[in-house]
Amino acid sequence: MAAALATAVDNPARAPLTHDAIEAAARAACGRVAPLWPLATFVAVNPFFGFMDHSFAVTAAKLRRVTGAETLMGREFYVAKIAAGEIGRADLQAAIAAAPAEWRVPATADELMAAARQPAPAERPGAVVATIADTLDRLARGDRQVARTAFMVDEISKFCAAYFDEGQAAWTAPAKKLPLYQAWRAAARFDRNPETMGVKRFRASVAACPENPIDAIAYVVAAQGLPESALEDYLFRALFDIGGWAAYARRVGFVAGLYGQADDTLIQLLAVRLVWGYALYQERTDPAFRQAWAKEMAKAAAMPRGERVADDHDLTIRLVLHDAFERAFQRTMLDALKGAPVLPAPATKKPLQAAFCIDVRSEVYRRALEAVMPDVETIGFAGFFGFPIDYVPIGQSRGNAHCPVLLTPAFSITETIKGASEEHETEALGLRLLRRRAAKMWKAFKLSAVSSFTFVETNGLLFAPKLVSDSLGLTRPAPNPRYDGLDPEDREHLGPRIDPKIVGGKMTGFDPKQRVDMAEAVLRAMSLTKDFARIVLLAGHGSTTVNNPHAAGLDCGACGGHTGEANARVAAAILNDPAVRESLVKRGITISYETWFVPALHDTTTDEITLFDVNEVPGSHADDLRYLRAALGTASECARAERAGALGLEPNSDIHSAIHERSRDWSQVRPEWGLAGNAAFIAAPRSRTRGRDFGGRAFLHSYEWREDTGFKVLELIMTAPMVVASWINLQYLGSTTDNRAFGCGDKTLHNVCGQHGVLEGNAGDLRVGLPWQSLHDGRKLMHEPQRLNVVIEAPRAAVADVIAKHAMVRDLVQNGWLHLWLIDSLSGAVQRY
Fold it and tell me: What is the sign of the dihedral through the CA atoms of 801, 805, 809 and 810?
């Protein structure tokens, strides 16, 4: 039926579109959407994930034409950088020389600067792909008629909030178990709100559309006379209207794909969006609208296939300016790498080796620790320490993936009260569940339809002490979900259980062979296979904030938006296992009996380091442990002092207290700067970067290519940590260049929606990306957007082999989503790949 309907109604001469062609265009449009993870596991996602097969320049042109979104800063940003001397003439001239000839950019630096100072043209070449709602809004401009696009987005958003709700709503959606499109159709049968707002035949239009989502999409495409040449653009543009919810639906499918399952949630959401537009289309039969729509479709059909960057002169000017801006940074950073001498590694027998996450915030702390302990060896490694685990907190039946989102957990680990008997743990678990039920009942009472009217008036004053203590940072606005319902003495003994055990019908923990395999893989990946220190610190990282919906975004991205505590403790427990060490000897790795691995957590808000499982450290290491604590305390003070200026704290103030207060302040919108400023990823021996100040802008991954047999570690670095760093970098870039499209707006206006995201205000689309307060301090940008500079010390042939083998890496490199540089091990020269 849908195939027969796929004929352009308003233009009978146009060739009909087949059902297969429409479905292919719909799936291609869905593939352009980047996923969005819920708040509890919020991780950085490349907002241009679906455009990796396009170049950076082509994507910039396509998004600008189809959606109006920007991937570059305005001209005034680059003009200011030129005026400040941060972009030099040599940078401008080099960018001009690198620009494709067809862009027809100015030939000299002076001409480019003059062009940059000219105001950007008001009109863009070509046409932004228009939807039904857009056309109606344009016709109604100046009238009091409600904006159709905003109204449609609000209505779809309300439905999605109820459908995807993860436990926030007191009343669940009645059709939640149905597929999304079917659930929406069922709800639309009774929804009179659109008709009240002027969409008179809304329910009839929805009922007229097919029940199958693909058939419904084909039906609407035919009815609206969409041209084939612009079909994918139109469908993507329709999804962009509800980009937040589209991203959330894309995440559902993305996760299903990791487990080899199929999911069409996003296709169903696309059907909802198109049928909504069709209802608006059906409402207007007047000549003014039909003529306007026919004109839009004619313009869309006339657009050439493929993206011509050169047609947008304003964009080409800014692309060259942006290239010059990035070259200015590359000039300073790469000169520092080439110019500074390579410091010798610390003595073979080291008192301490400390492994930190490659996160840019760790770079600051590693420098501080090396200044305090010159003979320490610091190591950079992914914060999940090579253990992709599903961690199940005590009292929960399901866990969370503590590993990068590109991976699937290979092991399930349950939390336990270490040292407690099984009876005590069962009693503590029962008490926790009882307290949680009581808290849930209390919340339900406060939010119920009857008690909510009288609750505030009768009990409001009783909450005054709590409001005061929360405001002073003495208590938390809400219990820490990690510890809620547990007694204080039990909280101090929580930890992972690594022994194999069947829990809930599922095997958890590691068997003996798995322990040895994982230990070997992790040590080789860290290039840590000999000369072990007496203490090896494994420091994951997390962040401390309150009243912050995006708190997980400040935790470890390598741990799936969780802290790295569980991974560090699992890794340390396995590496301290005598049986594992005995088996490692047979595999060429000998860990001295004097060596002890100590797990820890680096709080990136306060720069405090917490050590775990110290009661298991042998008594022979008591002095080492005291020395370590003292050194970490001094290093923390140094790191806080370095970060104080960016946080607006005076150098002579009590920085320690001020930073801790920020972590407890429920009104603080900038408890820390997260990964703002990130610009480089360096995979090389620490001796190559030690003693150099990267200002908290570089991901530092330790890598010794001479110890990498078969370059398996290099392949792992380029396909996992490098890709994750690129995702982080591009999320910051998109959130900065166009926060409306790729960020989540003003933090002070956020309302948590269904526990999966935030709305900016009380309506509108689900917001993606980063809040503006995480990028700007109120006076200036704290993150200046540029593509990631990846610097690797490894043979060119080995790097080329990895690029040729992996399409994802190849797209990042060859399509200009990052800059790749190689260090020559003999000369130290750094060259562009």
Answer: positive
Annotate 131-183 with DSSP letters as a single string.
-HHHHHHHHTTTSSSPPHHHHHHHHHHHHHHHHS--S--SS--TTTTS-HHHH
In 3D space, the residue among 149, 107, 110, 104 whose CA is nearest the CA of residue 128 turns out to be 149
Within 8 A by CB and 6+ apart from 78, the residues are 87, 116, 318, 321, 322, 324, 325
Q: Assign 601 to helix, strand or coil.
A: strand
pLDDT digits (tens, 9 = 90+) for 802-826: 999 999 999 999 999 999 999 998 8
Contact 363, 546 (CB under 8 A): no
pLDDT score recorded for residue 30: 97
Q: What's the one-letter identity of residue 741?
A: A
Cα torsion for 197, 199, 205, 207, to the nearest 10°?
A: 20
DSSP conformation letters of 297-346: HHHHHHSPSS--GGG-HHHHHHHHHHHHHHHHHHHHHHHHHHHS--PPPP
**DSSP-derived pairing of the beta strands 411-417 and 389-392:** parallel
Structure tokens that stand for 625 in this block: 């442990």
Band of residue 7 on the pLDDT scale cut at 50, 70, 90: very low
Cβ–Cβ under 8 Å, residues 549 and 612: no
As a whole number of angstroms, the distance between CA 407 and CA 258 comes to: 7
Angle at 549 between CA 548 and CA 555, to 5 degrees: 80
| Residue bearing tokens 């000549």 | 287
CA diameter of the chain:
89
Out of 12-26, 300-314, 463-477, 746-760, the most confident range is 746-760
Check whether 504 has a pLDDT greater than 80: no
Note the helical H segments in 743-824.
Answer: 796-805, 807-814
Place of tokens 């289309």: 281
In whole angstroms, give the CA distance from residue 45 to residue 246: 14
Judge contact between 404 and 567, C-beta under 8 A: no
Q: What would the two tokens of residue 826 be? A: 């003999």
Pairing of strands 400-402, 389-392: antiparallel
Q: Which of 429, 372, 374 is nearest to 636 (CA)?
A: 372
> 389: which strand partners?
402, 411
Task: State the burial class of residue 297 (Cβ atoms within 10 Å of its Cβ: 0-12, 13-18, 19+).
Answer: buried
Element (H, E) at 784: none
H/E stretch holding 357 reads strand 352-357
**Residues paired with residue 507 on neighbouring β-strands, in sequence order:** 502
- Of 684, 692, 683, nearest to 343 by C-alpha is 692
Pairing of strands 788-792, 680-684: parallel
Looking at residue 15, its pLDDT comes to 58
Is there a contact between 485 and 406 (Cβ–Cβ < 8 Å)? no
Q: Give the whole-angstrom CA distance, residue 36 versus residue 250.
A: 7
Q: Are strands 596-603 and 535-542 parallel, antiparallel or unpaired?
A: parallel
Task: Please state, as a whole number, how many other Cβ atoms lie within 10 Å of the Cβ of residue 547.
Answer: 16
Closest residue by Cα to residue 615 from 635, 636, 632, 598: 598
- In Å, how far are 394, 397, 429, 517, 700 from 433, measured between CA atoms? 10, 12, 6, 37, 42
d(CA 317, CA 94): 14
Per the DSSP assignment, residues forming a β-bridge with 790 are 681, 820
Rounded to 10 degrees, the C-alpha dihedral 403/404/409/411 comes to -30
Give the pLDDT band of residue 634 (cuts 50, 70, 90). Answer: very high
- For helices 796-805 and 712-719, what crossing angle results, to 10°? 60
pLDDT at 6: 40
Q: Which two tokens stand for residue 455?
A: 């609750």
Those residues whose C-beta lies under 8 Å from the C-beta of residue 185, and which sit 6 or more positions away, are 206, 207, 211
